[in-house]
Amino acid sequence: MARALGSLSWLLVALLLLLGKLASVRAEPPRAGPSSALAARRDRAALLASARAEAAGRPELALRRLQQALGSRPSSAVLLRYAELALPLAGSASARELGERAAHADTLRRALARLERTDSTPEELRRLLLHGALAEALAARYEEALQRVREAGRLQDAATVACLRAIATIAAQRELLALAERALEMARQYMPQELAVMGELGLVQLARGRVREALRVLGERFGIEPQRLAARRDFAYALLSAGRAEEALTLLSALAAECSASLGCALEAARAALAGGRPEVALTFARARLQHGADLDALFVVADAHLHRGELGEARAAYQEVLRLQPASVRAQQALEQLAIDSNQQRSN
After folding, report:
1. Three-class SS of residue 87?
2. How far is 235 from 238, CA to CA, in rounded Å?
3. Among 5, 121, 215, 276, which is disulfide-ready with 245 (CB 3.0 to 4.6 Å)?
4. Whole-angstrom Cα distance, residue 136 to residue 179?
5. For residues 227 and 209, what is the distance between their CA atoms, to the nearest angstrom?
6. Is residue 41 in some structural domain?
C-alpha cells in the first residue's frame, strides 16, 4: 500500500512539473521564425533604399523599391510609406499629377486587400485607410472612398480633412461638382473651423449655382479673416453672383491698392464696378490688371466701360486688341460690327 501511494505521489509530482513546463511555453512570446526574420530584413532594406533614392531626388526609384517589397503579405510600414509617396493626402494636384497617381491607386488597393490588419498598429491602419480612400476615388469608386473616410476619420484631424479635400479636387477636375461639395461638407463636419475648406466649398457651391449657400459659407470665412484678400475677394465674387455688385465693389475698394496688385482681385473689382454702373472705376481696375500682361477678360471690361461712357473710338481699339490676341472671338467681331453700324448711322444723321 505504501509502495502504491509512493508511486502515485511520484506521478502527481511529474504531472505538476509537466503542467508547469507547458504553462511556461504558453507564456513565452512566439519567436520569429526564419521566414519572418527574412521579411523584416527585406522591409528594412526596402525602406532604407527608398529613403536613399528620395534623398537623391529620385522619387520614381523610391517608389519602385517599396513596391518590390510589398509581396504577397505586405507589411504596414512599407505599405504606409508607399502610400505616402504615391498618393499624398495633402497639397493640391494638377490633372497631370492626378493621372500619374492613378497608376499607383490599383497597386495600393490590391496591397490593402492583402494586408493582415492585426499586424498593424491602430494609427498605421487608420492612415492606410485614408490613403486607400484616395485610391478608391482615383479609381472612380467614390462611395467606397467616402466610406473609408468614415471608417478612419477623426474629429479635428488634419489627415482626415486633407483626404477629403483631395477627393474633392479629383471630383472637381472630373466635373463632378455635387461629389466635390459632398466631400467638402464632410470635411467641415470633421473640422468646422478650417478656413481653406470654407473657401473651396463656397467656390464649388457658386460653380453649382448655389449662390445662397455660397454666400453663407464665404461670408462666414470673411468674418473670421476680413483682412485676408482671398477671403474678401471670394466673398465679393459671391455677392456679385447674387446681383449685389455695389456691395462687392465696396468690399474690394476698401483694399484697393492690394486688390489692384492681385490679378484675380483686380478683374473681379473691374467686373463689379462695371455691373454697378461705375465704368470709370472699372477702367482703373482693368488697367491695373493689364499692367501684368495681356488679358482677354480685362480687355473686354475696358471695351465695355468705354461703351458705357460713349467713347466709341477707345472701345473699338480695345475690341481690336482682343481680336489680335484671339482672332476667332465672336463677341469682339460682333461688337466691332455693331460699332461700325452705329458710326454709319451717326454720320447719316
Report:
1. coil
2. 5
3. 276
4. 14
5. 27
6. no
Would residue 84 count as lying in a domain? yes
CA angle 95, 97, 102 (to 5 degrees): 95
Domain that holds residue 108: 48-163
Q: What is the pLDDT of residues 122-180, one digit of tens each?
A: 999 999 999 999 999 999 999 999 999 999 999 999 999 999 999 999 999 999 999 99
Residue 204 pLDDT > 50:
yes
- Split into its structural domains, the chain has a count of 1
Classify residue 57: in a domain, yes or no: yes
Here the CATH number for the domain that contains residue 80 is 1.25.40
- The candidate with the shortest Cα–Cα distance to 20, out of 32, 9, 28, is 28
Task: Compute the chain's Rg from CA coordinates.
Answer: 33
For residue 69, being part of any structural domain is answered with yes
Q: What is the pTM of this model?
A: 0.79
